[in-house]
């Protein structure tokens, strides 16, 4: 893959590549009298910089996938905007502009077995992607596919003529990353890419993201509920809770020295306070979850040891403390 970054200055570039501004998404849930509005994503702003792995982490149901779908243009936000290279993606009019966006921003999904049709040979996907994005001509197409496979540590001979069932989950996820790399993207949006991969292979996949960042200047939006890989792979992290980002900053700072009471609770809930261990598993809190989503003030007020009257009525603003964002009234002053 001819994407190696020869310019060392680019390595330290901190320029925003994609920016989410005040995103909100309302879903209407239930039917008849039980119909209600669920504010799945509320006032979410962040950016993924060039040459950066940014993680959105949080419990199941906190709004991660909804945010990623909005960023990819798969879902329209109720409010807010997404800017890619300073262009509002909802206002891309021309087909060429949309295609360029699809080429530069690629997605990787949770289950690689759902990405590939079991009756189709996997290499046909790779060749089709190359053709669809303008690598026409047998030689260029073959070269693009070979380079992409090479960058994920695979060779054509291991893939050619084989069906998805002939690969392990980890191998197939590598192939789906290779497919995404064929278009030479600037950004990968990876939604829980290792949660269905065998635990022993998870680190090799997340290591791949680091290699892609360092050697090919690919930025990654990594979405996970797994604190161990988040800590290991990220440059910066945003912690989501019930549709809000409650704390965001340098990964080491946020996870080792959390400021938001929710992030502090997460850290304490990990045995030996070791963030390399797995994050809290999803507990069955559906009723609590619904109640928290519906709260008008701070969504964490029902469980927070520092709750004050104001927290119950007013949603906290974003406060900037020691180089990070914390959405909590404790940091108002
Ligand atoms: N199409 C939809 N219609 C109604 N509600 C939805 C829809 N999509 C998501 N939701 C709800 O919005 C909330 C956020 O969902 P989302 O899938 O974004 O969470 P998540 O953080 O990705 O969770 P997980 O870790 O389980 O993937 C959840 O309460 C979910 O039930
Ligand atoms: S705003 Fe209030 S309830 Fe919410 S986390 Fe901060 S102190 Fe706790
Ligand atoms: Mg999800």
Keywords summarizing the entry:
globular; 14 helices; 333 residues; 37% helix; binds adenosine-5'-triphosphate; binds iron/sulfur cluster; binds magnesium ion; Rossmann fold; 8-stranded mixed beta sheet; alpha/beta; 4-stranded antiparallel beta sheet
What's the SSE blueprint?
Layout: H1 8-11, E1 16-29, E2 36-49, E3 53-57, H2 64-72, E4 79-84, E5 87-88, H3 95-104, E6 105-108, H4 112-115, H5 122-132, H6 138-151, H7 156-159, H8 169-181, E7 187-191, H9 199-216, E8 219-224, H10 227-233, E9 236-241, E10 244-250, H11 251-256, H12 261-269, H13 286-294, H14 309-313, E11 319-321, E12 324-326
Parallel strand pairs: 3-8, 3-9, 6-7, 7-8
Antiparallel strand pairs: 1-2, 1-4, 4-5, 9-10, 10-12, 11-12
The protein binds adenosine-5'-triphosphate, iron/sulfur cluster and magnesium ion (MG).
Structural features, described:
By secondary structure, this protein is an alpha/beta fold. Mean pLDDT is 87; it is low at 1-13 and 280-285. It has helices at residues 8-11, 64-72, 95-104, 112-115, 122-132, 138-151, 156-159, 169-181, 199-216, 227-233, 251-256, 261-269, 286-294, 309-313, and strands spanning 16-29, 36-49, 53-57, 79-84, 87-88, 105-108, 187-191, 219-224, 236-241, 244-250, 319-321, 324-326. The strands form two sheets. Strands 6-7-8-3-9-10-12-11 form an eight-stranded mixed beta sheet, sandwiched between helices. It has 14 helices and twelve strands. α5 packs across α6 (138-151), α5 runs parallel beside α8 and α6 packs across α8. It has a single domain (8-331), classed as P-loop containing nucleotide triphosphate hydrolases (Rossmann fold). The structure holds adenosine-5'-triphosphate, iron/sulfur cluster and magnesium ion. Magnesium ion binds at residues 64-65, 191. Adenosine-5'-triphosphate (ATP) binds next to β1, β2 and α2.
């Amino acid at each position: 893959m001819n994407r190696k970054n020869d310019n060392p200055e680019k390595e330290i570039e901190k320029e925003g590549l994609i920016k989410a501004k005040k995103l909100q998404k309302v879903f209407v849930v239930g039917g008849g009298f039980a119909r209600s509005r669920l504010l799945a994503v509320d006032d979410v702003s962040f950016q993924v910089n060039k040459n950066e792995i940014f993680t959105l982490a949080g419990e199941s149901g906190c709004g991660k996938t909804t945010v990623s779908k909005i960023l990819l243009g798969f879902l329209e936000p109720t409010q807010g905007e997404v800017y890619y290279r300073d262009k509002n993606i909802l206002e891309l009019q021309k087909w060429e502009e949309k295609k360029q966006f699809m080429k530069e921003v690629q997605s990787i999904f949770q289950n690689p077995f759902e990405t590939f049709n079991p009756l189709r040979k996997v290499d046909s996907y790779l060749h089709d992607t190359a053709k669809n994005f303008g690598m026409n001509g047998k030689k260029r197409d073959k070269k693009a596919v070979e380079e992409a496979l090479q960058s994920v540590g695979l060779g054509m001979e291991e893939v050619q003529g084989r069906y998805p069932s002939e690969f392990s989950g980890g191998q197939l996820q590598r192939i789906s990353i290779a497919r995404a790399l064929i278009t030479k993207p600037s950004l990968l949006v990876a939604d829980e890419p290792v949660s269905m991969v065998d635990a022993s292979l998870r680190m090799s996949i997340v290591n791949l993201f680091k290699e892609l960042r360092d050697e090919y200047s690919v930025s990654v939006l990594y979405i996970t509920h797994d604190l161990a890989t988040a800590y290991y792979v990220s440059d910066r992290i945003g912690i989501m809770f019930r549709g809000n980002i409650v704390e965001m900053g340098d990964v080491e700072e946020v996870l080792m020295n959390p400021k938001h009471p929710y992030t502090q609770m997460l850290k304490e809930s990990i045995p030996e306070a070791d963030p390399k261990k797995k994050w809290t598993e999803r507990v069955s809190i559906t009723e609590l979850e619904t109640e928290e989503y519906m709260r008008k003030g701070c969504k964490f007020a029902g469980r927070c040891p520092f709750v004050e009257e104001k927290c119950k009525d007013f949603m906290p603003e974003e406060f900037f403390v020691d180089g990070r964002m914390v959405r909590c009234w404790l940091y108002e002053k």
